[in-house]
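Take a minute with the sequence and fold tokens given here and flag any structure token that looks odd. Thanks in advance.
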Amino acid sequence: MWEFLFDDLLTIVAQIQTATKFLSLESSGNQGSSSGNVQKVRSALLSLFVTVPSNVFCVVFDTIFCSGSAVDSSLAMLQEAQQRLKVLVAERLDEAVTRGDLAQVERFFKIFPLLGLHDQGLARFGQYLCSQLASKADENLLLAVGGELGERRAALVFADTLTLLLEGIARVVETHQPIVETYYGPGYLYTLITHLQQECDRQAQKVVDKFIQQRDYHNKFQIVQSSMVKSVPTEKIEPRSLDPVLLEVTLMNARSELYLRFLRRRMMADFEVGDATATPGIVQETAETLHAGLMQELIGYYIPMEEYYMRETVSKAVAMDTYEKGQLTSSMVDDCFYIVKKCISRALSSSSIDCLCAMINHSTSVPESDFREVLYNKLRQGFPATTLQDIQRGVSSAVSLMQSSLQQAKFNKLGIDSAEVAKAAFLVTLNNVEVCSENITTLKRNLEVDCSKLFTQGAGSGEQAKIDSCLSDLVNTSSKFKDLLQEGLTELNTTAIKPQVKPWISSFLSISHNIEEEEFNEYEANVPWVQQLIVNLKQLMAEFKAGLSSVIYDTLTSLMTSLVSMEMEKTVLKCTFSRLGGLQFDKELRSLVAYLTTVTTWTIRDKFARLTQMATILNLERVTEILDYWGPNSGPLTWRLTPAEVRQVLPLRIDFRSEDIKRLCL
């Protein structure tokens, strides 16, 4: 029934015999034995008395002395010695603590588990360590409060003070963990950390209280809150004055999160060795007692103050917007996104997922509500039209001048006093919108990388879901800027391009395509219509190429080519063609497509596929030749024209009889 091996029993018997002999000598007053040896053997015997099961201990004594009374007397003696030793060890430990003798403190600290006093030993040792930490923390806080403001780290002095406190506790845990594991066994580091944690909370509270007092933190928050609630605040705070305070708060929280991760790792490792049944929840709950309400309160004030800083600074950047000639964008784009990125980076540096999510949400709403609205209002003013364009639209000169004056009046608010400058301002606004969309996309991509680094430090799946949700909102915001860009391009296409292109395409009607060979040869040497159209399009798009980004210019060119294709279809259906006239049209169309292909990276031939097929029909020698390209004979060619549209194009050839067209089976 015993769990001890035979060799272990022999060792126990020998130790008991020797120890009881020394104890008997000591109780009889024999001074011949060294008191140090007696104490050493007594401690060893008492350790056996504490650790060996009592039934085993009694049987061994009974076997040695063969007397029940001897066993009872010896056990009573051991129990009395155990109590005296407990008192003695506690007194000696208290004396060592009073003297500040770390070596003696650790010496007696190691004896407590031999007496079965694990919790008492850890409590007394923890009390000693806490007194040392408190003394050093008070000293550091006194230096922080009384330091010269001109010092380089003065703006972060409370964050540095909190860092010293947390580093000191981490150093204590790291230094004494081997002692605890060796003499107390695994699973007891948790108890020691619990004692240290209580002192950590008290000292951290002192640091935070001084920070709030010295930085006027609560008063700043109240002013910010009042400013954000009231439309006309009675008192406002300069955003720049919040900068160092916000930085210090995030640094304090980051240091706290780093310390918490350290504690979690240490306690989890200790539990894994000693108590496999301990749940991670116990570790998490214990670790998070640090600043459970303390740092949450600071971050709770930080978030609206950071939002205020962001909104106010962005508003200033918009108000101070400037544009230099030759630049595609104005200053507010880079300025605003520098501010947004700065605020998010600062929130990210706090290592708080909730804080980061809140600031990502604010950084989504600020560009959307404050910045996008400004750009939208500028685009609503429209692209200034020239007097010629107004006349082409059928508007009188008087009305045209009045509208022009009204438009100039709107732009005058930004110091724009001419139509040319107004045009440049509109193009710059388009570029601003496009860059904003790209900046938001870049911001999201960079945040994904930064957040992945944060998650490697121990963030959970639930926190990952929070971040993903916030980042998806950034995608939606970027899409809204893209939609706004499309609206602006549609306005530009409608106002500046369509009124010009339509008359140029309509001039195709003035060129006869019912021609003979002499006229065809003359056109071959000189193609006046398509050459002039290409020159006009070059001049028209040159202004936009210089003033728009490559992405927007390509999009605008695509809109222009779609417009040209659509107007050409309408115009061609109003003309008549001879056989050579159809051939001439095919040459003109090829020249136009070749030019447009060089000015954009978009696919052009697809936009002109219907016109190309119309040219093919107009080049047929006879009506029935269409069957060689239709239906099963079409090969790789995909017809974009319907049978009804083919029948509409065929009559444009003056030499095609209507009877032949009607007999076609398409």
User: Anything to note?
Assistant: The chain has four domains: 1-116, 122-306, 320-495, 511-663. Residues 1-10, 31-35, 387-417 have pLDDT under 50 and may be disordered. Residues 1-116 form one domain.
